[in-house]
């Protein structure tokens, strides 16, 4: 009897000793591989230090929005419980909420964020995701070369073309491998923005209140503009193969005069391996003719998987990562645009990235891509059409006609 009592006591002690390990909650967060998971890791380490018993693991994947969505769509369709928090492109919250893949944040107040992100994450009055960081497309340019030739940053695409030709002629053989303009022509999400920039500049909408408001003539002019860059030698012949990070790498290597890209590129341009560090300017994207200068809204959001087995803990983590402290840290250390307007004037942020003071007006006026549960289909139609026109497979007129027909079948 006494031995039995000792055995039970020993077993009890073992169970108690094991309790802390069993009580540990492990959360897994999916972070885009192009958005500096190593910097996010520092904030996750800080979170773990403040929340004993919680361990956060990062899963990375995909260097394009499409690659990430492809993977996450597979995971969510399978109702996989492996992921708890998802970093989503700003175009995805509506889609994921409609599919039932993400959970809601009841009573969450988004009024402190930039309005565009409060709107993007609120579907039918319900908050379905929280802002991670803001973004928009910018025009990067070689400040040293524009200064050399007395050229002001272009406000129209026509001015950009003239500037590219002037620099090319002035530099002569030294500019043999210098592209005038690099942008996204590959059939990726960036090509949707490529099409929309001059389309919006003409005062046109693609979708209004869920209904298609396609303007064929404006579409032809948009596609013709991008094709003209290829035909006139301002952009390289195989621009239809260029993805987002290709543009970044080529500009960083000193092989591009003007580049259309997102904010993440800035940190790379100023890095120790950059050939253009200290020579880069940033401006609003040009307008088409007398139209308005327009930019494409980007940004990433934190959604909580509806299949997470740690709902409360996952929501708490998402709220922490979406807070002003983390937003400020990622701006200073990762050059990721804040989702809080006040941080654009924060001394540490401005010291780290002085151009952020110019970025706020762009982010505040950037336009969102069409909001529709069928966005995947809309995106596929636009990006494949842009790609085929740039590759010379279709004329701008043929591309616009095909785009209109296909969009009408999706958005009646």
Notable characteristics:
about 400 residues; alpha/beta; D-Maltodextrin-Binding Protein, domain 2; 2 domains; five-stranded mixed β-sheet; four-stranded mixed β-sheet; 13 strands
Structure characterization notes:
The protein has 412 residues and is an alpha/beta fold. The protein has two domains: 25-128 and 297-365, Periplasmic binding protein-like II (D-Maltodextrin-Binding Protein, domain 2, 3-Layer(aba) Sandwich), CATH 3.40.190.10; 137-296 and 371-410, D-Maltodextrin-Binding Protein, domain 2, CATH 3.40.190.10. It is 47% helix and 15% strand. It is built from 17 helices and 13 strands. Strands 2-1-3-13-6 form a five-stranded mixed sheet, with helices on both faces. Helix 8 packs across helix 16. The protein is globular, with a radius of gyration of 24 Å. The relative contact order is 0.16. The model is unreliable at 6-22 (pLDDT under 50).
């Amino acid at each position: 009897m006494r031995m039995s009592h000792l055995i039970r006591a020993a077993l009890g002690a073992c169970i108690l000793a094991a309790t802390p390990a069993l009580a540990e909650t492990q959360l897994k967060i999916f972070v885009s591989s192009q958005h500096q998971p190593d910097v996010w890791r520092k904030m996750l380490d800080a979170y773990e230090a403040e929340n004993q018993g919680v361990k956060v693991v990062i899963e990375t994947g995909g260097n394009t929005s499409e690659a990430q969505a492809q993977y996450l769509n597979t995971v969510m369709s399978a109702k996989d419980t492996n992921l708890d928090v998802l970093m989503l492109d700003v175009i995805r919250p509506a889609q994921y909420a409609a599919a039932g893949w993400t959970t809601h944040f009841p009573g969450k107040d988004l009024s402190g964020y930039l309005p565009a992100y409060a709107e993007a994450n609120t579907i039918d009055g319900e908050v379905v995701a929280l802002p991670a960081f803001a973004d928009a497309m910018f025009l990067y340019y070689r400040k040293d070369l524009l200064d050399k030739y007395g050229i002001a940053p272009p406000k129209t695409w026509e001015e950009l073309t003239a500037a590219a030709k002037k620099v090319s002629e002035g530099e002569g053989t030294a500019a043999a491998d210098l592209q005038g303009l690099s942008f996204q022509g590959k059939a990726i999400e960036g090509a949707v923005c490529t099409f929309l920039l001059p389309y919006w500049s003409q005062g046109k909408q693609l979708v209004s209140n869920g209904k298609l408001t396609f303007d064929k003539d404006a579409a032809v002019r948009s596609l013709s503009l991008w094709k003209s860059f290829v035909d006139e030698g301002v952009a390289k012949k195989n621009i239809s193969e260029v993805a987002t990070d290709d543009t970044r790498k080529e500009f960083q290597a000193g092989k591009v005069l003007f580049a259309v890209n997102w904010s993440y590129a800035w940190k790379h341009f100023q890095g120790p391996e950059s050939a253009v560090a200290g020579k880069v300017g940033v401006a609003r994207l040009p307008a088409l003719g007398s139209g308005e200068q327009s930019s494409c809204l980007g940004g990433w959001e934190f959604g909580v998987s509806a299949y997470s087995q740690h709902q409360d803990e996952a929501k708490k983590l998402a709220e922490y990562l979406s807070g002003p402290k983390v937003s400020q840290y990622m701006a200073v250390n990762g050059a990721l645009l804040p989702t809080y307007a006040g941080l654009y004037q924060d001394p540490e942020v401005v010291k780290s990235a002085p151009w952020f003071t110019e970025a706020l007006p762009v982010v505040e006026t950037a336009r969102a891509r069409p909001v529709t549960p069928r966005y995947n289909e809309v995106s596929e139609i636009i990006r494949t059409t842009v790609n085929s026109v740039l590759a010379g497979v279709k004329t701008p007129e043929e591309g616009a006609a095909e785009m209109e027909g296909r969009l009408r079948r999706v958005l009646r």
